Structures are given as structure tokens and as C-alpha cells.
Amino acid sequence: MDSPYLAFFADLRTDTPVDVLPLHGLEFDDYIGRPGSLSATLPVPNRRMAARVRQLVEGRTAVYLERGGQVCWGGIVWTLTPAMDEQGLVTVALQAATFDSYAARRRIRRTLAFTATDDVTIVRRLWEHIQEAPGGDIGVGYAPAPPGTPRTVTYHDGEETVVEEAVAELAATDPGFEYLVSVHRDPATGRRAKRLLFGVPRLDLGEGTTVLDLPGDVLTYSFPRDATRGGTTARARGGTPEGATGPVVSDEHVAQALIDGGFPRLDTTSDHGNVTDKATLNALARAELAALGGPVVVPAVRVRLDADTTPLLLGTTVRLRIHDVWFSPGLDATYRVVGVKVTAPERGRGESAELFLEGLEGRGAAAGQGVAERAPASPARQEHTDRDGQEAD
């Protein structure tokens, strides 16, 4: 079976095209708020193909996937592993991650102080900081962003704060925001482009609602319910101010409704070593309790992909309808897609995608579940739109 995906390789910093190469065993995923990944193998049947694959340099090569002319994934090639099997066949295993993974490889090496500054603006400034240094610009642009919440924070030179961790901590502070680096085709130039995209407090993309049915498009589902990841109380522990004898700690926040409903006290704690402001720690604890209060449920469904149901579902709304022995008399609920994991077609295997779902409060909940579904922890549309929420170019 021919793959519907084309893999375009380019220089990471200049976007100069390198090659278009076939990928076998392709799987890729993408998530709101954390990097996605790609894994595949490059077949090397002869010296000519070996010379082409050698043009790819891990850490400085970008890879884009296109499906039906639409850019559906983009990221950085981080590892390449040439290997030969017992039959003498040579392949190169490729591992890549979305462009937001670049922030995990960059550290703040200049004191940056922000006073009562919008948290979304702080994130943009952090990305500007890492891209303004010589060799640091990987071409991530900035979409117009909604206003966030004022924060006061300082990153000191010498603390070696990882940019990805700084961004994640800001996003996790109540009321928070969501973000990703989107890839799309620039309508003015026709070139592939990437830009930082925000939603406050939530990132919703696309228009309309995709209906997924079982029996129908849905191949499998799972609704894991995990009380070991949840809790009914939360505290956030910060750093130790100069001259103090111990760290600053938030108040204890309690999910009283769950306790009144019969749940026991289950304590959760998080550490934030660079935060010494108690109000910020309280906001972090509130957000963590909201995300982890009670058993954590991360619904996932695997759906078949075709011309009508495409992998461009991240951030969109789906209506899930299931009627079987578990969901009786039936499930009819609305969710937001917070993660997509795609398995490309191979011989004897069709194209499919696993969708990770988050319940939309007030827009339907799983029948008989009793606990709101949540997104993973940092884990076909009626009208096609790209990840920027704009019409596909």
C-alpha cells in the first residue's frame, strides 16, 4: 500500500530543501502543551540512497510531513541510527520531535526579569531570547495572542533554567494557557512556516464538530480510570528565599466536593524550585488540583483515516457516539482532541489515528462515568482547517 505521506527534509535554520525521502513504519503524534514525536525507518538499498540519507544531519535537519498537499506535522530530526540486519539489509532509524522540543534544548543564560507581565507575553519573550542568539533562530514566528494573566517572575543567569520547563510552569499556573508550535503553508510565499500559537485558557482549533460513531469510524476505545495519578488535596512547594531557613509553600488546597462525596484524602505535591512567591504557588496548586482531582480519566479512541477523516484533528471538537455492552443505553458526549497519534498505512494495515480526548464541561459527559475526563498529564472535520485555526493554505 502506498503511503499518503510525503516526508520533506530541510535545513533547520535556513529551511533550504535537502531531499524528499520514503519512510517505512511511520508513526507520529502531536499534543497540546507538550512536544510530539515521529519515528520511522529510511530504507538504504544501495549506495546512491545511502548518499542521499547521509545528507540528513541529526540536530540540524527539519522534517515535514504532507498528506494530500496539506502540511500535517513538522519537527526536528534528533537521532539517526544506521543498522544492518542478518540478511544484510541496511536501514536508518529516524527519531524526530515537534519544533517546540527545541525549547527543551535551550537554557536561559541571561537574567530576565518580568514585573506584572502577561504570561503569554513572557513566553513569547523567552522564545525571542533563545532565537536572537547567534545560531539560535529556527524560524518560529508568533501568531497574534490573546491576553493572559499578569505574572512577576525572574530568571537569573547561572540558574540554567530550561526554557521548556519555564514555559510549562507558566502554563500550569491558574488560570493558565495552552500553546503549541503550529506548522502551515504561508499563503503569501507558498513556503512551509511555523509559529507559536496560544489559547487562554484553552486552545480550540477548527470549525464545526466531527461525529465519530461505534459501530462506524471508531475501531477501538479505552477509558482508563487511574486513582494513583489523582488526589483530593494539593500543595505546591517553591524555592528557598535568600536568608530563609526553608522553602516557601502554598496553602493546602482541598477538593471538598470530592471528600464530601465519599473520596478519602489523597495528597499531591509539586515542586517549583525557582518560585518564591506564595500567591504564584497557590495558583499552581489550584491548577494542579483542578487537573488531578479524583481519579484521572484519559479517554482514547482509535479511528480509521480516509479522505473525510484526516489526522488534522488536534484542538478540534468531536462528538463521540458509542453503543455497546459497556455504554448502555449509549454514550453521546462531546470532547476536545488534545493529542493525536497516527499510524501510517503499510501492507496489510490501514491508516488509523488514536485520539486522546478531554471532556468539555457543560457540553456532555461520559454516561455513567461520574468523573470528568481529562487531558494527558505533561499528554475528519466538516471543514478542513489547519492548526492555526485558519483555512488551510
TrEMBL record:
<feature type="compositionally biased region" description="Basic and acidic residues">
    <location>
        <begin position="381"/>
        <end position="393"/>
    </location>
</feature>
<feature type="region of interest" description="Disordered">
    <location>
        <begin position="229"/>
        <end position="248"/>
    </location>
</feature>
<feature type="region of interest" description="Disordered">
    <location>
        <begin position="366"/>
        <end position="393"/>
    </location>
</feature>
<protein>
    <recommendedName>
        <fullName>Minor tail protein</fullName>
    </recommendedName>
</protein>
<feature type="compositionally biased region" description="Low complexity">
    <location>
        <begin position="229"/>
        <end position="247"/>
    </location>
</feature>
